[in-house]
Automatic annotation (TrEMBL):
PANTHER family: MAESTRO HEAT-LIKE REPEAT-CONTAINING PROTEIN FAMILY MEMBER 1, MAESTRO-RELATED HEAT DOMAIN-CONTAINING
Domain Maestro/Maestro-like HEAT-repeats: 56-300
GO CC, alphabetical: cytoplasm
Protein name stated in the entry: MROH1 protein
InterPro entries the UniProt entry points to: ARM-like, ARM-type_fold, HEAT_Maestro, Maestro_heat-like_prot
Gene3D superfamilies noted in UniProt: Leucine-rich Repeat Variant
Residue stretches in coiled coil: none
Name of the encoding gene: Mroh1_2
């Protein structure tokens, strides 16, 4: 970052000399060069010096690197374009989006470091991407990040929930299958308001994480999830379920099934929240739609 501020005229030669290092047989050299390029992309100097495409293409080329840290840093660099050259994100949107999706699908990443970076970087890029590029990948991304909602790693839970909340802003007019993902995701967000980690609770409570089109009015969230007041979870859930059943009573069974999954959650507060959620849903649904409820399944909790 210091060189981006003070050594602009020298950067083209430095970049030229560092590029071969990205193919070094030594992990440490590839990591160092990738980290340098990743940080460089957070400055607009690469755009001013006509280096953006060169550096970006080299970061994209590191996605198949054998070293997990190199792959992670490459994605961080691509995400940094959102702050360094936001006006160029739209032009390269399809390529950047494909890189993030590939990162989330990384199979050789036991600790999900690459997936975590991909979700964080995609969240930074979203506001600068074309709606049509995002909508073509919405369903795939939503399905891919769902398992992270309940990860043992708080950072993964937090990043996936932030990304999901941002994605739902692009959901208008999308297919019914994605709408089901939104509703299922809403259940998870509401239950994770009882998450054991405060940082996960905080992102679950953000207004953008009230997915559009679910029938839950933003004021319902805003009235209960204000920073200056503590959340009365039961009162809040009662209000949310009332709105859900007024708007989508036919979704009762699907919402119940999603909640049943959390009866076996690792976290006691979430296990307690799930039956409460079901109780309020049933309380507010009309008699005709109560027929959807499989009492045997509900009683057995499976």
């Amino acid at each position: 970052s210091a060189m981006a501020r003070h050594a602009g005229p020298r950067l083209p030669l430095i970049v030229k000399n560092l590029i071969p290092t990205l193919s070094s047989v030594f992990d440490s050299q590839r990591i160092t060069a990738t980290a340098f390029f990743a940080e460089l992309l957070s400055s607009n100097v690469v755009n001013d010096l006509l280096l953006l495409e060169t550096v970006m293409d080299n970061m994209t080329g590191r996605q198949k690197d054998a070293c997990t840290l190199v792959r992670m840093l490459a994605l961080r660099g691509l995400g940094n374009i959102a702050s360094g050259s936001p006006e160029k994100v739209r032009k390269h949107g399809a390529k950047l989006l494909a890189s993030m999706v590939n990162g989330m699908d990384d199979k050789d990443d036991p600790h999900n470091l690459v997936a975590l970076e991909a979700m964080s970087s995609l969240s930074k890029l979203l506001d600068h991407l074309e709606d049509r590029d995002i909508q073509s990948m919405l369903l795939h991304i939503a399905i891919r990040i769902r398992p992270f909602f309940d990860s043992e790693q708080p950072d993964l839970r937090r990043s996936s929930i932030v990304l999901f909340g941002s994605l739902t802003k692009f959901s208008e007019g999308t297919c019914e299958v994605f709408f089901e993902q939104i509703l299922n995701g809403l259940v998870t967000l509401l239950l994770h308001l009882q998450d054991p980690k405060a940082e996960v609770v905080n992102v679950s409570a953000r207004p953008p994480c009230c997915p559009a089109g679910t029938g839950v009015r933003r004021p319902v969230f805003l009235n209960h999830l204000r920073e200056e007041r503590s959340l009365h979870y039961g009162e809040f859930m009662n209000n949310v379920c009332k709105h859900l059943m007024q708007s989508y009573p036919e979704m009762l069974n699907r919402l119940i099934l999603t909640n049943l999954f959390y009866f076996k959650s690792h976290w006691a507060d979430i296990r307690a929240a799930a039956p409460m959620f079901i109780g309020f849903l049933v309380l507010h649904v009309d008699e005709d739609n109560c027929q959807q409820v499989d009492l045997d399944q509900l009683i057995s909790g499976e």
